[in-house]
C-alpha cells in the first residue's frame, strides 16, 4: 500500500516524499517513463539499489524453446520473452571516492515527482557521505513523446557544506544483472545476458553500444551524447568495453558550486537492418536530440500532453485519490501507446517484464477502448500491428484445422506462445475482441481507410474462424464448443456466452464491412452467400440461459455446476489458482473475473435491463476477482444496475491497483488493463457511455452519417454519481467529435467541443448536441436496489 | 508385420527362422525374458547390432524434474524413468580376431526360439568370418522364474571347417549407449548414463559391478560367475573397470571342437541397503544359482510353467496364429507378474522402456483380471504394491483437496508423474479400477486375509475419494464432474459413465467390506453412517442416457457433440492425437478407445441386453482404436451382442498387436494390456465369462459360500464360436476352483478340475458343476444381427 506510506495525493502528479527501499521495485514501475517505443523503468539514476533494472524497446525479445513434459499436437514450440536492453539511464556519482548509494551514508532528503502534464520524472536528494560531506542532487528524466528514439536526462550535483571531489559516470550498460525470477508462474521468465556484443565506441562526450540477441537475431543500438557544465578544472574522458560505454566527468566543487550534465540517449533496433545502418540510425536520432536541445524536448513533451489532456481529461470531485489515480492511469496509457507505431501494447506496457512482456486480449478489450475515446490517433497503429501478424494467425488456424485467422493468446511477435492450451489456444474470444476493437475504432473515428483496409481483413478472417469453429445442432442452433471465455476459472466449455455474443458481433460486423466494400470483399473471395451465411449464423448463435434461475449462463450448464465452497476458503488461499487444481476450479461455480458481466458491458443490447440486474446479482457472489481485469467491469455493471456505491468501491479498486499495489506485483510492471479500467469504471460505468447496437449502422458509409443525419445512432450516456462524489467531468472523443460531459448530483451537462451535431441518449431521452448549445439534462434518482454480496472475504479492495 | 516375414506359426513357441535387422528392435521385445523382478530384452548375445539394449530391474528408476512452460498448482514436479541397468547378458565373441557381428562376414543360418513351456530363449547360428572361417554358435538364455535374482546363459561355440582361434568375452556392462529417443511423445524419455560407479571387482571367473543412481539413490549390484569347458589350452582372465567387468576366455579350436561356458548372473537393488549388504546379496544369489546349476535352473523353469499352463492354458482350433498368440500372450503376462512381488507391472512389463517404464490402470483393469483367473498367486503381491503406495495416494488426495486416496495415473514409485492433468490427474477412474481389481481377486480366490487387510484399506480410501469428488444436485442425483474416462479423446467431462458405474461398484464393495470386517472398519473410523452414505450415494449416481437416441451417453452431453468428420480424415492422420489438437478431439464425438463399451464389460449388470446392443451399435462407428486397449473390449462386447465375426476380427487384432507390430511401436516393449486382451477377448468375449453383480454377495464371509451353498452367485458363461473356429477350450481359476471349459460349435462342456461344486450360468441356464460329472450344455444359435460399421479406414487390423 505504497500510497499510504510515502506518496502524496495530488491531482496532477505522483510525488514520493521519502524513499522506502521496501517499495523500491513498485516505485520503479509507477515512475516508469515510456513513449510506447522505448521504456525506462523508474530506476534510480545511479542504478543501485534497484528492484528490477529495466530498459525496453517495444518488440525486442529473445526466443527460447518451450518445455513440455508431455507435448501435444499444436503446442507452440518457441517462447518469447521481452529482454532488458542496454540501459542508457545510468549516471553513477562518486563524492570524495564514496559511491553515491542510498544504503550508505545519510540520506537527508529524497523526493521524486512524476508530473502528468510535463511528462518529466524529477528527483531531488540531499546526501551526506560516510565521511561527512553533503551534496545536493537534482535530476530530470524524460522519454520523448515527440522524438520516439530519444530519451534524455538533466543531472546536477551541488556541493553543500564544503568542498567535494566529484566524479560522475554516465554510462550505457548492457546485460545488467537481474534479480532471480519469482516462483509465481505468472511472472516473467528472466533471460540472463541476452545481448551479444557487436560494437562498442567512445569518443569525446559520445558513447555507443551495438548488440544482437542470440536466437531472435534482433540488433539493438544505443548512442549517447552529453553537455557538460562545471567549474574550471572540470574534465571528462570516454571509454568503452563490449558491455559498457562510459563518460567520466570529474570536478572539484566548492560549496554552492554545481556540476551539471545533460545526457541525450538515442535507441534503435531491427531484425533486418545491418550494423552500419543501425549505427547511423542512432547517431541520427542523437543529432536530432542535440538539435532539439533539452528545453526543446521539454516543450515537445508538454505539447503532446496538453493535447492529450484536452481530449481525455477526467475530473473527479469528492475523492482526491481517484482524481490522482485516473490521471496517473491515463498518463501511463498514453505513454504506452503514444509512439508504439505498429507494435503491440504489452499487458505491462514498457514498465516491467511481467507476463514476459507479452500482449494479450487486454490490449484490444481494455486499453484500446479507452484510447479510442481519448487518443484515437494511437489506436490505428496498434490495430495495424495486429494486422501485420495476420500471416501467423492464418497459419495457426490452419494448424488447428480451422478456417480464417486464429490470433495468439499471448505473443510479442505474432506467434502463439501460450503453453497451456485450455487457457490459451481455446481462448478464441481474443479474435472477436480484435474484431470489436477494429470496429469500435472505426465507429469512434469514421476512419474509412482503415475500415476498408486492415479493418476489413481483420473482420473477415475472424468471421471465418467463428464459422468454422462452431457447428449447428439438429435444431439449427449454432454452438461454439470447447472454448474458454474471459473467466480463467472455467475452461473448455460449450457456448461461453461472452464468446458467443462477441462472435455474433464479429460476424455481423464482417457482413456489414463487406457490404460497404464489395471490391475489397471480392479480393478476399467473400461472396454474397458467405456474407449471408455470417448473418444467418449470427442469428442462430446459442445463448445459454437458465429458465430455472432466470439468469443467463456463463456457459452451457454453468449454473448446474457445484458451487465453490467460499465459506471454507481462507483469505490466504487467494488467488485460488495458486492453491487449488485447475480441474476443481473448472468444474465449480467460481468466477475469476468478469465474463458474463463483461459481455453485458461489451454487448449491452443483448440483454434487457431486468436481465442485467438479475445476471449481475447472480454472478457477483461467485466472482473472486483474482484478475485485475475484473473490478472495472463489475464497476460498470454495478453502476448500470443501480448499485452506485458498489460501483464506486470497484472503481477505487481498479484505480488504485498499482498505486496501492493491491495485487502485490506492481514490481513486475503496471497493470495496463486495470489502468484502463479506471477510465472504464468512471466513463462507461458512472457516465454510462455505451455504443448502441442495432439502432443504426455501426459504420457509416463514407459521406453519410455526417452532421446530425437521421442514419446516425445516438451515443448513449446514463450518468449517476455515487454518494461519495459531487462531480465527475470528462472529455471524450466519439464519432469524430470532441465532447465534454459534466455530471453533477442532479444534472449532467453535455458540451460539444468540436465537430458536427451529435445525437445523445441520456437515460432514455434523446438530445441533439449542437456546438452552440450545451444540453443540461436532469439525472433521475437511482432505483432502489439490494446490493449483492461478494464471496466471503472478497469485498472490493482499497 | 514380423510374423509374415520371419516368424513361424507354431502352437507352443515363437521361432524366428532368419534374421531381419529391420525388425531387430521388435524381436528384442517379443523375445524378452523376465520374471517380473528382472527383465532382459532379447538382445543378441554379442550386444550388437541392437535396436534397444535393455536390462531392467522392476522399480529401478531415475527421477528428474518435470518441465512446464506454464506450471500450475498440483502439477507433479518430479518425473520417474525406468533405466537400463547393468547388462549381464553380453557375451562377445572373436574368431581369429574378427568380432562376431552379423553385419559383417556371412551369416549361413540363424534361428531363435522362445519356448513357452521351457521358458528358455534358444539361439543357433552359423557364421563365416570375413577371412573365411566358419563357426557354429548355440546359446540358451533364461531369467529364472524360481530364483528371482538369477538369470543364466549357456553359450557354446564350435569350429566347423578348420582351426579357429576363439576369444569369448563375457561381460557386465553399465551405462550402455542407447539410441536417441523417438519424437513421439508417448515414447519414453531416455536417460543417458544413469549409473554412477561405486565398486568393480573381477577375480577368477567372477565379476561384480555396483552402481548407484544419481538422484533416486538406488543402488544396483550385479555379479556373475562362469563354468568354462574347452579343449586343452583353454585359458581365461578376469578384469574390471568402473563400467565394465569382463571374463575373457581364449581357446584354439580344431574343427569339431567346442568352447562352452555357463554364465550365472545375479542381480540386486535397493534404495536402503548399504554397498556391503547389496554386494553380499548378489554374491549369495550367485552361490544359490551355482548350487542349483544350469540343469536345475532349466528344471525349475519348466516346473513353474507346467503349473501355469495347467491353470490357464487356452486352446484355439481353427486359427493357428491366434493359438500361438494367446500362448505368447499368457507366457509374457506370467513372466511380467511371476516374481514382481510388491512391485508394479508396468505397461510394457520389463520388455522395454516405452511409457518410461510406468504402470497405469492397465495393470488393474487388463492384466490382473487375466492373472486372477490364470495365476492368482501373482495377483495379491501386485495389489500389495498398490497398497504400499497408499501414503502417496493419501497425500495426493489431500493436495487436490479431496478425501481418501487418489492413486497416480502413471508411476513407478507411487508418486504421480503424469504431467498433463486432463489425461492424468482427473482420470480418477484408476482408483475404482484398483478397487475393482482387489474385489475381483477376493471374489476369485476367497483370500479373506487380503480382503480384511490391504483390500479393505484400498476399498475404503477409494470410496472416500468418490464421496468427496462428486456432489448431489438439487434433485439428489450424484454427479462426478470434471473427470476423464478411459477414452482419451474426451476429457474433463461431467458424469463419465464408466467412471460413475465403477465408482458405484467401488462404493458398494467398500460398504460390503466394512460390514464383513467391522473391527478393521473401526480402525479406519468408518462408522455405520459413512457406510450407509456410500450405499445411498451409489444408488443416486447419475447415469447419462439420451432419451432421444435411446443410448447411454459416454458422458453427459456426449451425444449432443458435433460428430467427428471421419470421411474427411485421411488414413495417415491416425493416431488422431498426433494430427489434431486436443480441444478439437475433446469437443467432438470421436472415441479413442472403448469407454462406455468397457463399462458394459466391467459392470455388465448395469445394462440390459437391449441397451448393450444399442450402445455397441452407437459407439462402434465412433471408435477409432488409437489405443491398444480398445480391441479386446470391443471383441468382448461384439461377442456379447451377437456380432461373432466382428468379435473374432477384434480378437485377432488384440492377439497380434505385438507379433504383427500393428501399432509400429513393439520396439519400445510389449503391450501388456493388449496381450491380456487376447485372453479377455477369448474367455470373456467368446466364452462369455462374467461375474454377476447383485445376485449374491461379492465376497463371501469366511466359512460361508463353501461347496454349493445357496448363498453363492453362479459364475456366468455365454460361449459361442465365430465361423472361423471349430473349438475353443480354456482352463480357468474362479471362486477358488479350477475349471475347464471346452466349447464346440454346438455344445460347451464344463469340467470342475479342482474344488467344491460350483453353480454356473450358461446362456441363462444354471448348472451346478460337480467334480464327478462334467456338464455338457447346448450352445444356442446367435441372434440375427446387423454388424455396425467402423469409422472409415478403421476396420479391425491383422
Overview in brief:
The structure is a homodimer of 798-residue chains. With 798 residues, chain A is an alpha+beta fold.
Structure description:
Two copies of one chain form a homodimer. Chain A has 798 residues and is of the alpha+beta class. Chain A folds into two domains: 7-310, Beta-galactosidase, Chain A, domain 5, CATH 2.70.98.40; 313-686, Glycosyltransferase (Alpha/alpha barrel), CATH 1.50.10. Helix content of chain A is 30%, strand content 25%. The first copy, chain A, is built from 18 helices and 36 strands. In chain A, the strands form ten sheets. Chain A has a ten-stranded antiparallel beta sheet. Chain A has a five-stranded antiparallel beta sheet with strand order 9-8-14-19-18, with no helix packed on it. At the A-B interface, strand 24 and helix 13 of A face helix 13 of B. Chains A, B: This is Glycoside hydrolase family 65 protein.
SSE arrangement:
2 copies of one chain form a homodimer.
Chain A (H helix, E strand, L loop, with lengths): L1 H5 E3 L3 E4 L7 H7 L2 E2 L3 E3 L14 E3 L3 E5 L12 E5 L8 E5 L2 E2 L6 E10 L4 E9 L5 E10 L6 E10 L4 E10 L21 E9 L2 E8 L5 E11 L5 E7 L2 E10 L4 E13 L4 H38 L1 E4 L2 H18 L24 H13 L4 H10 L1 H10 L29 H17 L2 H22 L1 E2 L5 E2 L1 E3 L9 E2 L2 H20 L1 H6 L4 H13 L4 E2 L4 E2 L9 E2 L18 H5 L1 E2 L6 H7 L6 H11 L10 H11 L3 H13 L15 H15 L28 E3 L9 E8 L2 E8 L2 E8 L3 E5 L2 E5 L5 E4 L20
Parallel strand pairs in A: 28-29, 30-34
Antiparallel strand pairs in A: 1-2, 2-10, 3-4, 4-5, 6-7, 8-9, 8-14, 10-11, 11-12, 12-13, 13-20, 14-19, 15-16, 16-17, 17-20, 18-19, 21-31, 22-23, 24-25, 26-27, 31-32, 32-33, 33-36, 34-35
Helix pairs in contact in A: 4-17, 4-18, 5-8, 5-18, 6-8, 6-9, 8-9, 8-10, 9-10, 10-12, 10-14, 14-16, 16-17, 16-18, 17-18
Keywords (chains A, B): Glycosidase, Hydrolase
Family (chains A, B): Belongs to the glycosyl hydrolase 65 family.
Organism (chains A, B): Streptomyces toxytricini
